[in-house]
Design brief:
Strand order of the largest sheet: 1-5-4-2-3
Number of strands: 8
Largest sheet: 5 strands, antiparallel
Shape: globular
Strand content: 5-15%
Number of helices: 11
Structural class: alpha+beta
Radius of gyration: 23 Å
Number of domains: 2
Length: 412
């Protein structure tokens, strides 16, 4: 019987194949699959399936059962007939692929990456109405050129609109067609509108367990920890499994100091640009296309010193991006690139009067609410009229409770 999840897993064929190859060669393999959440109402997305010799060996939960059947039907494990692959979906919808009986080994450090770990280029199956898919390297070069027309920001507070995609740049990371800096992460606020600035603040937040609100922070902090001490207890029992690199796991007294280090790193070595997307469906679609395109580019490769070589995710290491979701997916077409160019041009004028997200409107008390000429008053921030505590709460949001560091046994 067909499952409502079948089409979802079939759409991730390229990513699943990449994860299986990574796991088969001893690399850690993990991606965020939280875009499955709209398909069902579950308190937990935990599920597990095992596939061996092209057949489902065991499975539980409908979404994991569908995953196992799809992997078997597509023959994604056929190259490894003697291996049993375990597909584990966590409560918060992270998919990890491992080979049973084999522990993933550590990532190569600062020596470049073998070609085998490069993400696969996307291949679209042409249809009668399909647009022409561009060569990813050509499209990626044009993306970089277009984005250079936008301002580079160093703080979320500088962004003049509330909906869009963001593109991070990292000092020292350049490419042949991006000598001013290559894109190292593409991000979104996929589930709700009006949260672009808030999502960026999640990445820059500094407080205990801020890493649980940002996979980007977990990648950066994990890479710093592994670079400093590959045997750190904060990374045990293995890549992506330690309490720093797992979502919803509290920091310990040692790695909680990396919250500040991650924020300092972002402030000192990263900048970002933003493209305004008001339509959520279009924004989510372009996030996937843009990540896949940049990841598949032959010219945008990480430098030998790139911190991402220390990340636990094989997808991050192979793509040169601080992204794992959508790598290996469908890439931009000519029509897509033309639309993106329109959006970049529109973003150049955003914040110059058409978007009032950073404006305090003063409406006179009168029956007809008629507008008035500009009274010539100086601009003020609403935080100027609040106390220090209220201003901090408005800017940063309600902090998570401080943890009792003696409770979790994982640190013992």
């Amino acid at each position: 019987m067909a499952s409502k999840y079948d089409a979802y897993w079939e759409g991730k064929k390229s990513e699943l194949a990449f994860l299986i190859d990574a796991a088969a060669t001893g690399r850690p393999a993990e991606i965020d699959v939280s875009d499955i959440i709209p398909l069902g109402q579950r308190d937990s997305w935990y599920g597990r399936t095992r596939v061996r010799s092209g057949k489902v060996d065991s499975a539980d939960m409908a979404h994991a059962t569908s995953l196992g059947r799809m992997v078997a039907r597509l023959g994604l494990c056929a190259r490894y007939p003697d291996k049993t692959f375990s597909f584990n979906i966590t409560r918060d919808a992270t998919l990890r692929v491992t080979v049973e009986g084999e522990a993933p080994r550590s990532a190569p450090l600062a020596t470049g990456l073998p070609t085998a770990t490069r993400p696969p280029k996307s291949v679209r199956v042409p249809t009668e109405s399909a647009a022409i898919t561009l060569d990813p390297s050509l499209a990626c070069g044009q993306l970089h050129d277009l984005l250079m027309n936008l301002p580079a920001y160093a703080s979320p507070a500088q962004v003049p609109f509330r909906n869009g995609l963001y593109f991070f740049y990292e000092a020292g990371e350049e490419a042949d067609h991006a000598t001013a800096g290559r894109i190292v992460r593409i991000g979104n606020h996929p589930r709700v509108n009006d949260r672009l600035i808030g999502r960026l603040r999640d990445h820059y937040a500094t407080r205990p367990n801020a890493k649980n609100g940002s996979v980007f922070r977990r990648y950066l902090g994990g890479a710093l920890l592994r670079r400093d001490d590959p045997s750190s207890s904060c990374l045990e029992p293995g890549p992506g499994l330690g309490h720093w690199e797992r979502q919803h796991q509290p920091s310990c007294p040692h790695c909680v100091t990396y919250e500040q280090r991650v924020t300092d790193l972002l402030n000192s070595r990263f900048t970002f640009r933003c493209v305004r997307f008001d339509d959520r469906a279009e924004r989510n679609r372009f996030e996937a296309l843009l990540i896949a395109t940049v990841a598949a580019c032959d010219m945008c490769r990480p430098s030998a010193r790139w911190l991402g070589h220390h990340a636990y995710s094989a997808v991050v290491q192979g793509s040169g991006l601080w992204n794992s979701n959508h790598v290996g997916g469908a890439t931009l077409s000519e029509v897509d690139l033309g639309r993106f160019q329109q959006l970049v041009r529109a973003s150049q004028g955003s914040g110059s009067g058409e978007d009032l997200s950073s404006t305090l409107l003063l409406i006179p008390c009168c029956g007809e609410k008629k507008g008035m000429p500009d009274p010539g008053l100086p601009s003020r921030s609403v935080t100027e009229y609040l106390g220090a505590e209220a201003s901090t709460l408005l800017e940063d949001g309600r902090p998570e409770p401080v943890n009792n560091f003696e409770t979790p046994s994982v640190w013992n």
